């Protein structure tokens, strides 16, 4: 049974990581658009390494006979992200493969943490716009500037987060078994303690280093920022810490801390861990929400977990008195 438990947890962990990878917003996306007889086909990269040139190329086909004049419109150095796209600078695209109707130019990539906005146009001989190509929402494409992350930092972060997912999955299986009285309560709490430890190491020290090397920031979770990725880590860590504190007496065999929930209640809380993690992982990586919504969700979740813990603690105190 123990071997089957670990194998099942490992298989589910691989599936979870596949979901996370599939939902990532950092992957190249294919876009296609047709306007006034011109068809654009483009694979957009979400990021590029700082202080390097990045080749932007797209395919343009036309039902018209005349020679086309494709242009890339992008932010000038003196402009910022609030600039009206109609005021962006212009660079004429050069033919890259005339047989395939592919055109290109090179974008200058700035310091990590910055970004470039751009879109494409077809112009006539007097500068008039014949067609334009943006994202489906009508906004410019966005290219984020990132830094190189040292392999030791990157692989350590990946290992700790992989271990966290595995241990939470294992803890969920143990939570179900605890409800059925098949394991001891301490076994569940130890598993969640290890999950909490790995989540802390992967999400905070190594997460800080990942952010610093890649984006030039340290931490943008509440209360310091509204980055969705950092806050997803924080939501999960708060719940893991809650389970460990709730079962501290079981963990230390009564030497430190008190148990504020029964074994079956801890089993139920433990079995919820996987579904919370699943909900978090279904949120695409690198997606960003409206800042007020992000703060409301994060502070609301932290307050709810604190309230449940406090309510359980007060109930346990009354029972002991």
What does this structure look like?
This protein is an alpha+beta fold. It has two domains: 2-24 and 149-320; 36-146, Sandwich (Immunoglobulin-like). The protein has eight helices and eleven strands. The chain has helices at residues 2-22, 151-179, 185-203, 205-215, 228-246, 248-251, 263-281, 291-320; strands at 29-35, 38-44, 47-49, 53-62, 69-74, 89-92, 94-97, 102-108, 115-123, 129-133, 141-146. Strands 3, 5, 6, 9, 10 and 11 form a six-stranded mixed β-sheet that branches. Strands 1-2-4-8-7 form a five-stranded antiparallel β-sheet, with no helix packed on it. Helix 2 (151-179) crosses helix 7, helix 3 (185-203) packs antiparallel against helix 5 and helix 5 runs parallel beside helix 8 (291-320).
Number of domains: 2
Low-pLDDT ranges:
none
Shape: elongated
Q: Radius of gyration, Cα only, in angstroms? A: 26 Å
Percent of residues in helices:
40-55%
The major β-sheet equals: 6 strands, mixed
State the separation between the terminal residues, measured CA to CA: 40 Å
* Secondary structure tally: strands: 11
| Mean pLDDT score | 89
Which structural category do the helix and sheet elements fall into?
A: alpha+beta
Count of alpha and pi helical runs = 8
The H/E string reads HEEEEEEEEEEEHHHHHHH
Give the percentage of residues in beta strands: 15-25%
């Amino acid at each position: 049974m123990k071997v089957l438990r670990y194998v099942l947890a490992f298989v589910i962990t691989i599936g979870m990581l596949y979901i996370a990878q599939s939902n990532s917003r950092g992957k190249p996306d294919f876009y296609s658009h047709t306007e006034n007889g011109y068809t654009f086909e483009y694979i957009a990269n979400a990021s590029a390494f700082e202080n390097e040139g990045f080749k932007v190329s797209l395919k343009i086909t036309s039902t018209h006979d005349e020679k086309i004049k494709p242009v890339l419109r992008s932010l000038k150095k003196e402009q910022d992200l609030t600039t009206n796209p109609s005021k962006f600078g212009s660079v004429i695209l050069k033919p890259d493969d005339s047989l395939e109707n592919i055109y290109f130019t090179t974008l200058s990539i700035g310091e990590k943490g910055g970004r470039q906005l751009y879109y494409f146009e077809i112009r006539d001989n007097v500068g008039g716009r014949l067609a334009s190509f943006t994202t489906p929402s009508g906004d410019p494409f966005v290219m984020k500037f990132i830094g190189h992350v040292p392999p030791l930092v990157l692989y350590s972060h990946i290992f700790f987060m992989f271990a966290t997912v595995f241990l939470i999955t294992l803890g969920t299986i143990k939570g179900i078994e605890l409800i059925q009285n098949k394991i001891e309560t301490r076994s569940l709490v130890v598993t969640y303690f290890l999950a909490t430890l790995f989540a802390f190491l992967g999400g905070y020290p190594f997460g800080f280093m990942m952010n610093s090397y890649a984006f030039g920031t340290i931490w943008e979770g509440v209360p310091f920022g509204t980055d969705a990725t950092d806050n997803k880590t924080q939501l999960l860590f708060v719940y893991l810490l809650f389970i460990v504190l709730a079962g501290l007496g079981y963990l230390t065999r009564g030497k430190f801390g008190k148990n504020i929930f029964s074994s079956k209640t801890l089993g139920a809380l433990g079995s919820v861990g996987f579904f919370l993690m699943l909900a978090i992982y279904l949120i695409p990586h690198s997606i960003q929400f409206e800042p007020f919504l992000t703060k409301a969700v994060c502070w609301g979740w932290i307050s709810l977990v604190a309230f449940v813990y406090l309510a359980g603690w007060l109930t346990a105190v009354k029972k002991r008195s």
